[in-house]
Amino acid sequence: MNNPILYFNELYQEELKHTSVKIPSACCFTTIGVDGFPNSRFVSCKEVVNDHFIITGSKTARKGIEVEQNSKVALAFWWTSTNVQVRVQGLINELDSDSSNKYFQERNRESQIVSIVSNQGEVLDDIANLEQAYKVVEEEYREQVLSTPTSFGAWEIIPFRIEFLIFIDSRFHNRILYEKEGDAWKHTLLKP
Ligand SMILES: Cc1cc2nc3c(=O)[nH]c(=O)nc-3n(C[C@H](O)[C@H](O)[C@H](O)COP(=O)(O)O)c2cc1C
Question: Is the pLDDT reported for residue 172 higher than 90?
Answer without folding.
Answer: no
